[in-house]
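## Example record

The block below lists the input lines for one assembly entry, exactly as stored, with component labels intact.
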Amino acid sequence: MSQLQEVSVDKFKHLVSERALTGETMLLNMGPQHPSTHGVLRLLLELDGETIINCIPDIGYLHTGIEKNIEAKTYLKAEVMSDRLDYMNNLGNNLAYCMAVEKLVDLDVPERAQTLRVILAELERINSHLVWLGSFGLDLAAMSVFLYCFREREMILDIKELIGGQRMMTTYIRPGGLWRDVPVEFETAVRNFLKIMPKRIDEYEALMTKNPVFLDRLVGIGILEPAVALQYGVTGPMLRASGVNWDLRKVRPYMGYEQYDFHVPVRSEGDTYARYIVRIEEMRESLKIIEQALDKLPLGPVRSDNRKFVPPPRSELGVSMEALIHHFKLWTEGFPAPDGSVYQAVESPRGELGVLLAGDGGAKPRRCHWRTPSFDNLSVLPKIVKGHLVADLVAILAAVDIVLGDIDR
Amino acid sequence: MDKKLEIIVQALQDTFGVTFEEFRGEVHVFVKVENIIEALTLLRDKYDFELLSALTAIDFWPQTSPRFHVIYQLTSLARNLSLQLRVVLEDGEPHIPTATGVYEVANWRERELRDMFGIVPDGHPDLRILLLPEGWEDKHPLRKEFPLGYEEVQFTFNVDEINARKHFAKD
Amino acid sequence: MGVEQKLGNMGVVTTTLETVVNWSRTNAMWPMLFGLACCAIEMMAAQASHFDMSRFGMELMRASPRQSDLMIVAGRLSKKMAPALRLLYDQMPEPKWVIAMGDCASCTGVFNNYALVQGVDEIVPVDVYVAGCPPRPEALIHGVVTLYEKVNGQKLAEAVKA
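Predicted C-alpha cells for the full assembly:
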C-alpha cells in the first residue's frame, strides 16, 4: 500500500501563480474528506486571503476500474456495473448502456417498454435532482431542505423497490426491454407521486427561491459563458443555465421522447442561481412527461422476443425446452456482438451521458467507454471559481452537481 | 449517410485524403495522425463542431499493427450532427499531438488517455497523472495485456487458508 | 439505561462503572461525515427524515475525525484513497469503531479488479460488516445497533490493557 506523500509546490509550478512559490499566497488542501466536496474530491486552492487565485482539482479517489471490469464480463452481466457508475442516476445509466447494446446488435424494443423506460428515466431525474437540491441546501446551511427532499425521494425509491425489489441498484432496464412488466400497483403509486410532487416543489421554492440569504450567495456567482462551456465540454443543466438550448431528449429524441409535450428550461445568466432555477424547472417538466407517458402507456410485451439476445421470461422456463436452452446459453456464454463500435448518448440529469461500446465479434465487449457528464462539468471549475471567495466555491461546486462515481469511473 | 454530413466528409477527403466507414448509421472518419489537429480545427471553425463529446481509445490487442484507435467524438450543436474521427496508432508508446489548443476539454481527457492507455499527447500543458494513484506511471490498466487483478474467491474449504495469508489491518 | 437498582425516591442510582461508561458511549456515538460512493447516499437517507438515525444518538455527523467516535466506511475504497482513509482513522481519538457499510467496503462486491482495495479490513480494523449493495438504511441501523451490543459488552479491564 502506498503511503501518503508530502507534495511540494514544484509539482504544480505551472498551475499556480508566482506568488505561491515565494509563499506570499497560501496553498490550501480541500478534501478528499470534506463535507461539501460531495464525495472524495480533492481541490488544491491557492488563496490570497479569502480570494481564490487558482483551483486545481485532483480526482481519482474513487477510481473503480469499471471500464476494465466491463471488458471481463458478457454484455448481459456487465450491466450491473452501470448502476454503480453514477449512483444518483441508476436507471438512466441502465438506459444508456442498454441502448448502446441494442444499437450494437440491432435490437428493437417494444413500445410498452419504451414508454416505461421514459417514465423510469424521468423519475430517476427527479430523484437525482432531489438529492442534489438536498445537498445543495446543506452546503448553503439550509438543513430543512435536505430533510424535505429526502422525504420525497423515499417515494421514488418505494416505486423502484416495487418494480425491481431494490432501492437503488435495480438493473431493471435490460437490453431488449425491461426485466419484467411492472406490477399493477405501479400506476397508482406513480399517480399518487404525481399528485403530491408539484406541491412539494412549491414548498422547496418557498424555502429557497426568494430567500434573501440564498440570493446573496447565488446571484452573480460562478458565471460561465456559453462559449467557454462548450470549449470545456459542459453539458446538461449547466449548459442550459448558460443560455445554450441543448437537450438530447429534444434534439435527438430517443425512446419516443418526441411524442411528449415538454419544454426545455433555459436561462441566460449562467450563474449559480440560474443552475438552481433550471433544475427546479426540469423537475416540473419531468412530472409533465411522466404524466403524459402514463396516460398513453400501451399494453403489450415489455421485452423483445428475439431469443438470440434476450433471455425468455421466467414463466416460460418451466414449460419450454427451447426457452430453457436459450436462458442457459444467454446467461453462461452470452451472445456474440459484431466487431464494430457504436456511440450512444442520452440526457442524464447531469448532461450528455454517452456510451462508446465496441464489440469484438465475441461475447464480451472489446471496450466500453463512458462519456460521463460530471467529468467535463468539473473540469471547468478552475475557470469559474477564480476571484471568488472560498465560501462561494462551496456554492459553485454544489451547483455543478458532480457525482464522483461518474467522474472517476 | 446524412446529406449534411456527406458534404463535410467530402471536404475532409479533399483536404486530408481521409477514409471512412459506416456502422449502424454512424460515420467513422480515419484521419492520419499528423493531420488530426488541422482536421479538428477545420471541423470546429468551418463546420460548427463546437463540442468534443468524447476522447478515448480502443485497444485491438493482440493485433499490434495497428493496435490503437484514438476516438474523437464530435458534436455540432448548430447543425445537430455527430461525427467520429479516428486516429490509428501502432504498438509501443505511441504519440499523438495534443488537441488542447482546439478544445479545452481535451486537457483532462488526454491525461486520462495517457493514464489508461499510455498514449502520450505531445505538447500537453499539464501532463500529470489524473485518475491513478502516484507511482503508476508505466502501467496502463486499460491496455488489454494488463491483468484485471482478481482476488481469490473464498469458499468453506479454503477460507482459513486464504485468511492466513491475507493482510489484515491492526489498530 | 442499565439501572441495576433504584433506591426509593432519593434520586440515587447504583450501577457499575462499566455500565455507565458503555451507556454513555453508545448513546452519543458520533459518526464521521465521510461518504465514499453509493452507500453514502443511503447513509444520508438513514440520517434524513424517513429513517432518522438520531433516534439512536447519532444526529451529529462530525466533519472532523478528531470529534468522532465511529467511522462508517460507506462505499468502495480505491487504492488512491486508502492512505487517506488510514490517516483519518489514525486521527480519530480512542475509543473508536469502524463499520464497513456495503459489499464494496466489506469485500469489493461486484468490483473485483486492480483499482480497489479488496475490503477495508486491509486498511482499518472493522467491527461490524453490513451487507447489501447498497444496504437499506434499516440494515445500516441494524449494523449500528449490533455495534452497540458489542460496545455494551466491553470490559473496562480490557480497555485499560489495550
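Residues 3-16 of chain B form the longest helix (14 residues). The longest strand of chain B covers residues 51-59.
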